[in-house]
Amino acid sequence: MRPTIERVQKDVSPSWHFVDYHCIEPKIGVQCGWHYHDEIELVLYYDPHHVAPGKIIIDDYVGEAAHGNAYLTGPGLPHMLTRVASTATPERPSSSHVLWLDQSWIQSLVATVPALSAVSDMLVRANKGLMLSKATFDALYPLMNGASQLKPAAQFVRVVEILMLLCEDKSAQTLTSRPFCFYVAKDTPILDKLEKAQQFIADNYNEQISVQDICSHLHMSESSVYRMFEKHFADSFSDHLKNYRLGKACEMLVRSNIPVSVVAERVGFSNLSNFNRQFKTTKGMTPTDFRKLFG
């Protein structure tokens, strides 16, 4: 099972992208695998008839993908969505609405328009993931629903309105225990190193890799690699690798029935007891109990 680094295709503007996903018929096993991307992501779940219940995992947070839930995730923050089944019909529809935002563009917008300075603080909070308040969901839904069909100028106005609503949500709840990646300007040498490090881990997480392997791959000293991870991922290399493996384990537990021992081996843990201990410490439950959440 390969990890994915999602590349968002922005048809209208390179700075933002709206998408509406509508469900109007019964479906089994709707899945969005464990992934991350460079953009900031805002997603709303509209399901007034409760026909498509699901779970969302954002790093070490597990929550509901249910009507009235809205989540904001920062760049590089891994997440996944799963729905066991949907009983939607044209008369009882369900939908989700997504906005992806380019972080560099937002930073330049804030620099140009001082009135939007509060956006910077909101972006820092998004590095840990946010669950927005119900009031914010209610205000966001009419702005997000159908925005993908608007002309670029009208979409831009919606984006600014959405950013201001996000900044005003003082009740938004922080989700993860740590930030996953801080803002890094595009076209800088360190961004290239970060992307190569992420890709190397994505390609080799199931092997016994070490920091020396990363050093060789990036042509960097061990001390430089350690500093890079601590600064830009707020984690040591070993903790970052462990958490990535546990995220992939979550995906396998949800999407397959293979034994827990096999899951542990496939994500790079050579010792089952260590895997169970690390999983429970991070997720607050055993791998078996986690799987039952999605049964």
Automatic annotation (TrEMBL):
GO MF annotation list: DNA-binding transcription factor activity; sequence-specific DNA binding
Locate the HTH araC/xylS-type domain: which residues?
A: 195-293
Kindly give the SUPFAM superfamilies that the UniProt entry links to this protein: Homeodomain-like
Key words, A-Z: DNA-binding, Transcription, Transcription regulation
Fetch the PANTHER family from UniProt: ARAC-FAMILY TRANSCRIPTIONAL REGULATOR, TRANSCRIPTIONAL REGULATOR MTLR
Protein name from the UniProt record: Putative response regulatory protein
Species: Grimontia celer
